Prior knowledge:
Elements: E1 7-13, H1 17-25, E2 39-45, E3 52-59, E4 62-74, E5 78-86, E6 92-93, E7 105-114, E8 117-126, H2 131-140, H3 144-163
Antiparallel strand pairs: 1-8, 2-3, 3-4, 4-5, 5-6, 5-7, 7-8
Amino acid sequence: MTDLPTYVLERVFDAPRELVWKAWTDPKLLPRWYGPRVETIVHRLELKPGGLWLVEMRWGGNSHYQRVEYTEVTRPERLVWLHSSSDAEWNIIASPMMANWPRVLLTTVTFEEDGDRTRTRLTWAPHAANEAEIACFAAALSGMDKGWAAGMKLLAELLAELQA
Length: 164
């Protein structure tokens, strides 16, 4: 099999690494930037290998549920998780928005000190996916920046506010 298509998002934040880490792992801060333009509700966040982050995003009378299972938590350097759409009982399901979207995405986020700033790098790739899921993910790569970029803008604003 060839290399999997991988989405890569890199950002530099004007904030110390511990604060950026906190914004990615604190259930009170996550809803302020994760899921832009929707109401984000963190139902559970267990920051440990095997721990779950259960999140609901509400908009227009609809809810979309996501189930994240952490596989690696190395504070404040690295988070690795398996990311899936889920039903309201947190069972992994096919994406309600895209028929062949991968059921599970392997997500890795790294946090690297750069003086007073922090470099983050997020990668997203299909995990245990079939050919149709891999093709769907590859076809969607060019549009993924829209949602993530909006979230990163909100995250930068939040980090500035927390340091003010």
